[in-house]
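Following up on my earlier thread - several people asked me to post the actual chain instead of describing it. Fair enough. Here it is, all 390 residues.
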Amino acid sequence: MRRVHAHRARRTAEATMVSPASPAGSTTAGGRPDRSAARARAVARHHDRQAGHPAGGAQQRGVRVARRHRMAVLGSAPRCPEGSSGRRAGVEGLSWGNAIVVKVVTVSSWRELDDAVGEAGRSEGCGPSHSSLVFRGLARSTYSHMSGLARLRGKYAAVESHLVRNFRKYAHRQAPGPTVWDWLALGQHHGLPTRLLDWTFSPLVALHFATATWPEDDGVLLSVDCAAAHRLLPEPLRAPLAAEGALVFTTELLARVAPALDRFDRLTEDDRPFLAFFEPPSLDERVVNQSSVLSALSDVTYQLEDWLADHPDMGWQWVIPAPVKAEIRQRLDQANITERVLLPGLDGLADWLRRYYSPGSIEDGRGVQDNGASMAGLENRHGQNGRMGG
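Reply from S.P.:
Thanks for posting it. Predicted structure:
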């Protein structure tokens, strides 16, 4: 695997920056009275149970565990296997993959999360109705944002061209469009291992995938500023995007500069892979209803965690403790953000009914956990429960 982390050596473990607990009677950043103490205590008790702490530990940690505006700056950490806690001792937040240096906030309520997402989207040059953020939701905080291609392990980079070539050959009756990016989007949509990752313009859609399953585990909402990411693109890609005045690429626009994947990869400058976002063709109602966006990195061996570690100011991560998941899930159901809408058809309808009428929580992570939690809608087939595609 070729070296792609020119600045990784400069990153060492950073001290964790945690805001102290606010005194009783304090107000939120928006000036409202802070009434989240009860939920914060529930969050603290939840984390103490996960960490094996006695019940009294919740009082010691108190609101500090779920206090708003908590930022964790994480340095290099060993890769955490899925199913592990994903936390380093003494560090508030999560560490994915080799390293993550990203703003991390553990929320204690739906209102706090809604305010935080709105604040993150109010960047310079973007009005409130034109946020440049895209979102991903994970039902378990221990999941990684690894592409489906990388999950093949081994020398997976060498098989990418074979996968795409044979998919085009055998799926010719379902031709989505003339470009390789159309075919990649179609393959990703149907579970083909690709370098792509699924995103959405809608934080509510991403929150569906973060909360529809695994109710007893912490979830994650991740956001990236795609406009900022595109300012780092090589000039041959940046120029046509600016000429169109577009936030993200279409498959046709991307193919004008990079008609093949090897051409796309060769645009990399100074051995620093770039991240490009594009909208897939409207393959079906699912793509449209989910406000789908796809991302591609210019090196298949370089994962989103690596890119975020190299660009820490472009990402936000909100950890959703299990007690808060239930509140957010209720709000989403009331807003009709459900499998019935996001996964149109009888399969989505059945998934929605199964989850909606499942009594209580599922202790062993099965049952409703197996359905409606992948943007590709194929989690049963591909074992990607609780992930958005990839």
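The two ends are 21 Å apart (CA to CA). That should answer part of your original question.
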